[in-house]
Amino acid sequence: MNTLGMIAIVVDEYDLAISHYVNDLGFTLIEDKELAPEKRWVVVSPSKDGAKILLAKATNEKQTAAIGNSTGGRVGFFLYTTNFSETNDPKPMIAGD
Known about the structure:
97 residues, alpha+beta, 2,3-Dihydroxybiphenyl 1,2-Dioxygenase, domain 1, 2 helices, 18% helix
């Protein structure tokens, strides 16, 4: 059986990205390990099941340009939830907000 284990998303700053995924979206911080002075292994997940997200800090101009546009303007990630209607403010889940 094959499953998707993790995807990487390029971010501009680790702590801001962690705050967004954990505080705004309700994800769980799975791992945050320093690999080098400017590099960390940061993994978040919406639940214990399914794929996890590696938050990868941009290290050059090309990567920085991809932040928020990793799918070329197309919808690329779909979060299935049972409590969307209970969310007080769905704006953090909408691209560009």
